[in-house]
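Q: What residues go here?
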């Protein structure tokens, strides 16, 4: 028996069940009695339900992050924790690693800590095979689950995402509109967000009626933050005979590696080729030249996600998906400033 089962049997929304369990006065007495009768009949009072019925919440939120050494994810955790504390909730953080078993184990650990909700930071939590996401759906049967920059369409899962597809498409169109069509695209992940970016890159070519050669798409599988290795990776691509007049990195670190490659080989950026990144992280301004990048609005994303989380716990009816736009930040690595 889950919160979804209770809502289904009672013929009400999950939000209504949540309001009942959290003691909200914004529920008709008849509806409240119906929901409570079903819970009592089934004898089901685990974690969040038991606390809700007794108004004895621990006011704690479980946060799962794959890798807190990652600049983007670490900053996301910072914004999320900051907003949770401001809202009167206590964050409990688990660094899961990228392995599926590690994610499952950490999620189970947090549920056993009787958290009121779970926040999954980053699209790495979405597996290509939906069966591998079942543990997240099962968790949503016990507590509301918030997902940052990824989407799972399932009851009691709330997703807050940047429109990575459109942002990457717009970034690519800036170069195509300048007549630069031989763009080297670097990516280092098959996550939900990464796939959206890759599809946005492809779509820009389609919109212009251009054929995109697959030889311009390169997956980097090395160390994520090894700029020297990324530079060598680009050098190997160039030595294979592929010519290009622009490089787009699906993450800023890939763009920094591209700039390092240019410096090491006597190329001028943006004179010989333009460089663009994604996430608008601090490292884009530590590079010389500074790198044009997409700001995916990480702070607004995290603020909205926490607002949704607290609102759901308060029994509010809120959309299951919130999409925010990205913004291109023009810098000296391109000639795209209008």
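A:
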């Amino acid at each position: 028996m889950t919160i979804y089962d209770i809502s289904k049997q009672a013929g009400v929304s999950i939000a209504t069940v949540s309001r009942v369990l959290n003691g909200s006065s914004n529920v008709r007495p008849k509806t409240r009695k119906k929901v409570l009768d079903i819970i009592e009949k089934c004898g089901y009072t685990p974690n969040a339900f038991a606390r809700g019925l007794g108004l004895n919440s621990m006011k704690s939120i479980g946060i799962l992050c794959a890798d807190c050494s990652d600049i983007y994810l670490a900053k996301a955790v910072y914004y999320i924790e900051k907003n949770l504390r401001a809202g009167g909730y206590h964050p409990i953080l688990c660094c899961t690693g990228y392995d599926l078993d590690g994610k499952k184990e950490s999620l189970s650990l947090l549920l056993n800590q009787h958290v009121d909700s779970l926040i999954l930071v980053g699209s790495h939590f979405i597996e290509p095979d939906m069966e591998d996401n079942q543990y997240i759906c099962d968790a949503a049967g016990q507590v509301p689950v918030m997902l940052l920059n990824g989407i799972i369409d399932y009851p009691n899962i709330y997703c807050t995402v940047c429109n990575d597809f459109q942002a990457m498409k717009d970034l690519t169109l800036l170069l195509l509109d300048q007549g630069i069509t031989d763009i080297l695209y670097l990516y280092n992940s098959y996550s939900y967000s990464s796939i959206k970016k890759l599809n946005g890159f492809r779509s820009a070519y389609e919109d212009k009626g251009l054929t995109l050669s697959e030889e311009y798409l390169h997956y980097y599988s090395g160390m994520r933050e090894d700029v020297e290795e990324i530079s060598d990776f680009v050098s190997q691509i160039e030595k294979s005979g592929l010519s290009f007049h622009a490089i787009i990195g699906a993450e800023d670190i890939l763009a920094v590696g591209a700039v390092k490659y240019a410096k090491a080989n006597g190329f001028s950026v943006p004179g010989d080729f333009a460089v663009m990144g994604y996430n608008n992280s601090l490292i884009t301004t530590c590079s010389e030249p500074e790198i044009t990048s997409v700001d995916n609005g990480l702070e607004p994303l995290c603020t909205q996600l926490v607002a949704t989380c607290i609102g759901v716990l308060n029994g509010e009816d809120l959309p299951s998906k919130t999409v925010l736009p990205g913004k291109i930040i023009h810098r000296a690595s391109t000639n795209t400033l209008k």
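A: Context that may help when evaluating the design: The chain has three domains: 1-57, 59-162+297-326, 164-296. Residues 48-56 have pLDDT under 50 and may be disordered.
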